[in-house]
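Example record used in the benchmark description.
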Amino acid sequence: MSMKPLEFDRRYGELDQVISAYLGRAVDGAEDGETGPDEALQAYLRHTWHSRPWALGIAEQQVREYARNPPGRLRLRLGEFYPVPDVGLPESAIQEWLFRIADHIKRSLEEGQVPPPAVPRTHWEWRARFPELAQLLGGWFSQDMPDEFADHDAALQDYARSTDPQIVARAVGEFHELLALGLDESDCVLALAELGMEVDPPGPFAPSAWMALACERLAVKRGDHGRPADREQ
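Model output (C-alpha cells):
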C-alpha cells in the first residue's frame, strides 16, 4: 500500500525536491567530486537558501537517511518507499551519489555558503522561482492558445477573470522580478520557454516589452466581471 501524502512529505518531501532538480539533466556520478556541487544542486541550493533556508537541514537529513537505508525492490514495488527517478546513473552508483549530495548540503549549511542571487540556470530553477508564471504561461499560452483565444489579450483576460485576485497579484510580482533580472531579448525568449510559453509574443512587441505589458494589464484592479473597477470618489 502506498504512503499517504503526509507520511511521504515527512519522510521524503525535501528529498523529492532535491532529486527533482536533476530531472531531465545528464548526471555524471563523478562530475562534482571535490570541485563542489554540480549545476543542478547549485540551483537547488541557490533557490532554497533565498526562499526556504530552513528546508536545507531537512534535505540533508532526508537525503542522507535514504542513502543509509536504501529500500529493497519489494518495498519499492509496494509503494512504501520513495523511488528515485532515473537520473542516468546505474543503480550501484545511486547511494554514493546521494551521500555526496548530502555532504554538499551539509557543507553549505555549516560554512554558511549562501549563493548570491542569479538568473536561474536550470529548468527546475526557473519553475521553482516563478511558479505562478509557469502556471500562467504554461496553462494559457501553450501551443493550443490560438485555438482557444482570439489573441494574447483574451488569454490574459481569461486568466485574470478565472483566477483568485491574490494569485493574480502573485503573478504580477513574479513578472516584476523576472523583468528585474535585466535579461536581453534572446534570454527573455529562453525564460518564457522555460516557463511553458509555446507561442511567440504578439507583434510588434519584443519579449521583454510584452512581459511588461502583460504585467501592467494584470495589475489593473478589476471588478467582478474582469472590467476595470470604478475609481473611488
